[in-house]
Amino acid sequence: MKLQSMIIGIAAVALAAAVAFAGQAGQAALRNPASLKDRAPDTFKVEFDTSAGKFVVEANRAWAPNGADRFYGLVKNGYYDQARFFRVIGDFMAQFGIHADPALSAVWRNAKIPDDPVKESNKAGYITFATGGPDTRTTQLFINLKDNTGLDGQGFAPFGRVVSGMQTVEKIHSGYGEGAPRGRGPDQGRIQSEGNAYLTKDFPRLDYIRATTIAK
């Protein structure tokens, strides 16, 4: 029995060390956006473990290859872990993707990817990169909470969709509404410069991502 307990203990320590090493490697990669050049699989699934529950996104590279590749690299290296759903507008969309650490947000602010042609519509449950104009996509994403087909003509190219747990997505806290200065929600500039310290203090009810995992 003692030997068995010892073996279990050693295995647990080894697993913890492996997880810590993977986390450190991911953080190192995130400090150099140019190093994240992985080509995403043709299709892959990502599980989101959030404060509101779990949901799964299936990405399809054929829909938007540049977006799918960027999403894959960010998830693989833990970029979205602890990120808040900072802009959630009921009956519209849930937005996230600014890093919890402002130092890493700064690194990715200008790591832009080229636009993809819009092949799929922004239907309810479809996930899309936010954009501020041509070729400006970086890390921010949103999940459509309803059919937002009006976004299709504005260059918003979905690369995947929620395939399970949409009820969780619909539970994500939307009480703060639109962000400042147009609304009373978080100011994106302050999120970029202050990170989760700002959000935890001033917007404590925001739901957040505990971890994202690429399904095997």
Helical/strand content category:
alpha+beta
* The level-1 CATH class: Mainly Beta
Assess the beta-strand content as a share of residues. Answer: 15-25%
Main sheet properties: 8 strands, antiparallel
Query: What topology, given as strand order, has the largest sheet?
Result: 3-4-6-5-7-2-1-8
Rg calc: 18 Å
Number of domains: 1
What gross morphology would you assign? globular
Helix content: 25-40%
Poorly predicted segments: 7-23
Mean pLDDT: 90
User: What is the CATH T-level topology?
Assistant: Cyclophilin
- The CATH architecture can be named as Beta Barrel
Compute the separation of the termini in Å: 33 Å
Oligomer: single chain
What would CATH call the homologous superfamily? Cyclophilin-like
Total beta strand runs: 8
Q: How many DSSP H or I helices?
A: 6
Task: Write down the secondary-structure element order.
Answer: HEEHEEHEEEHHHE
